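Work Package 4 report. The design task specified in the project plan requires that, given a folded chain encoded as structure tokens, an amino acid be chosen for each position. We show below one input record used in the internal validation round.
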């Protein structure tokens, strides 16, 4: 009698019945352990008998398991590769921050001229903090992410270096023709010549 064919056997539902001469024997299916009459699920995720990638999560199922790549990785779970969120755009870095890819994740760094945690960056006002290189005789003007320097009236230069303009030499003064022009740092003054009176601009 083929007990496996007739169903007259006591093999577990998760076992295979193998007919023999005058009897039969039971063998647990792959993913199960036991004597064939009683078979229990093997948790491959616990025993380590799985082929999930090191960057994947093993999820036990009845008689088997499946692998799921961890966040920040893509693949079938048996092979997982790092996702470069900085390239794909799947990141939450501020528009004024740099995205730096890491294995399985990324981090954000605010650009120079900005402060914050990288996900939120605010402009640094270098003119207020004093973190600028404007000349002492220049005006600091804050811009988004930076600043620029403008020499004060009476000075010339690029704002980072300003030199006094001698208006008496350049002729850029309003002294009366009968007055003497005297240069000062950043300006000038007018003095009426002997024999004339006035404020120097009018004598």
């Amino acid at each position: 009698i083929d007990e496996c064919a007739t169903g007259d056997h006591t093999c577990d539902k998760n076992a295979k019945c193998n007919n023999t001469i005058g009897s039969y024997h039971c063998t647990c299916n792959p993913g199960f352990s036991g004597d064939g009459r009683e078979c229990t699920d093997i948790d491959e995720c616990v025993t380590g008998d799985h082929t999930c990638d090191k960057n994947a999560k093993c999820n036990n199922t009845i008689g088997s398991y499946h692998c799921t790549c961890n966040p920040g990785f893509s693949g079938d779970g048996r092979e997982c590769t790092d996702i470069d969120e900085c390239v794909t755009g799947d990141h939450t870095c501020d528009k004024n921050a740099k995205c730096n890819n890491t294995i399985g994740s990324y981090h954000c760094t605010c650009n120079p001229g900005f402060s914050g945690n990288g996900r939120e960056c605010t402009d640094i006002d270098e003119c207020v903090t004093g973190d600028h290189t404007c000349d002492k005789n220049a005006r600091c003007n804050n811009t988004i992410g930076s600043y620029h320097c403008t020499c004060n009236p009476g000075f010339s230069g690029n704002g980072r270096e300003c030199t006094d303009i001698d208006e008496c030499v350049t002729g850029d003064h309003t002294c009366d023709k009968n007055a003497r022009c005297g240069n000062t740092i950043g300006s000038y003054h007018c003095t009426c010549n002997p024999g004339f009176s006035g404020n120097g601009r009018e004598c």
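The chain has five domains: 1-41, 45-82, 86-123, 126-161, 165-202. Validation will be extended to a larger panel in the next phase.
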